[in-house]
Specification:
The structure is a single chain. With 347 residues, this protein is an alpha/beta fold. The chain folds into two domains: 233 residues, Rossmann fold; 101 residues, Roll (Methionyl-tRNA Fmet Formyltransferase, Chain A, domain 2), CATH 3.10.25.10. Helices cover 24% and strands 24% of the residues. The chain contains ten helices and 16 strands. The strands form three sheets. A seven-stranded mixed sheet has the order 3-2-1-4-5-7-8, with helices on both faces. Strand 13 and strand 14 form a beta hairpin.
Length: 347
């Protein structure tokens, strides 16, 4: 359901925390030419996902009667963190939209939602589970903007796993929320290509900049009470977990370009193991086959033209630099210091 920091724990420590839920006096909504049907927006002030899409809703005259803002303690992300757009609390203040902060089961949150009486609730970046009691309040349901092509990459950090698994295509899925995790019926999808060298930031930026037409269509369909519903194919369901340290060890059973793309998702997090020693990778490159022979061992370092290389199923991976003493060093020189012998291949 969520996007996904340079280091998740470090980022969480520096994100501002919104106050605990408290009722605030009603304000006059200053959005012009508002639509008839009422919506409530749920999002997170530090996420670009929320800020960009809230702007789309405002530009398309959404009748936003309230905003539920997420607490930011413990929020995890695989983006570089923060938002360059105007955060939702500032937008709410400028436009006179009532805003509260809290989790769904916090005291008064569901009472406030009932008081706002939205026709539909729209979630655009929120890491807290919404119980059935919450989902049943708006008569037209609750929809969520999920940055992957559901049912693929349900759960957290979908952009990270899209790149990790080498998907060629990604996009946005707007789906109805149910008691499952991103399992509800699909309303809309948008599509963009995934490119070699993509980071989570660049992929999300490409997807989100393509989403205004979906927002307009959603608002039109809400007004006409005809938001489409297409069941997901559960046989295609894949669930994401929070990346673990072990995930960043290079798996040379994967193609070289995929390993380069994985490295670029989180620079300096990927690593190789030399004689039991973990060596972080600073730079790597996919190179053409250095020889016509394939009589080489998997997960074995070789020297080729003065570089450290590994065989993969497609092309070879050249380890240009490894991190030693917090500085990038020649991958081959580091390997030569650690290993007794490295076999030379190529010309």
């Amino acid at each position: 359901m969520l996007p996904g920091s340079k280091d998740d724990d470090e980022a969480a420590q520096h994100r501002p925390s919104c106050p605990s839920h408290q009722e605030k006096p009603p304000r006059r909504n200053l959005v012009k030419n508002m639509r008839n049907k009422k919506i409530v927006i749920i999002g997170t002030r530090t996420w670009e996902l929320t800020s960009i899409h809230l702007d789309y809703f405002i530009k398309n005259n959404a009748n936003i009667v309230g905003i539920l803002e997420s607490p930011t303690e413990g929020i995890t992300t695989t983006t570089s963190g923060g938002s360059s757009s105007k955060p939702i609390n500032v937008v709410a203040e400028e436009l006179g939209i009532p805003i509260i902060c809290g989790k769904p089961k916090d005291k008064g949150v569901m009472d406030q939602l009932r008081e706002w009486a939205p026709d539909m609730v729209v979630v655009i970046g929120y890491q807290f589970f919404l119980p059935d009691e919450f989902l049943n309040i708006p008569p037209m349901g609750v929809v969520n903007f999920h940055t992957s092509l559901l049912p693929r990459h349900c759960g957290r950090h979908p952009g990270f796993w899209t790149i990790w698994y080498g998907d060629e295509q990604s996009g946005m899925a707007v789906h109805f929320m149910d008691s499952g995790l991103d399992t509800g019926e699909i309303a809309y999808k948008s599509y963009v290509p995934v490119q070699d060298g993509d980071t989570v930031d660049s992929l999300y930026d490409r997807i989100w900049k393509n989403d205004e037409s979906i927002v307009k269509q959603l608002l039109d369909d809400i007004d006409n009470d005809c938001v489409p519903r297409t069941p997901q194919d559960r046989t295609e369901y894949t669930y994401n977990y929070v990346p673990h340290e072990k995930d960043f060890e290079f798996d040379f059973r994967q193609p070289a370009q995929l390993l380069v793309n994985r490295h670029l998702v989180k620079p300096n997090k990927s690593y190789i193991v030399l004689n039991g020693e973990k060596c972080p990778v600073s730079k790597c490159t996919a190179i053409d086959e250095p020889t016509t022979s394939r009589n080489f061992k998997l997960n074995t370092p070789y020297e080729c033209n003065g570089n450290l290389v590994y065989m993969t199923p497609n092309k070879w991976l050249q380890i240009d630099h490894l991190v030693q003493d917090d500085k990038p060093c020649s991958g081959l020189q580091v390997a030569e210091r650690i290993l007794d012998q490295i076999t030379r291949i190529g010309k």
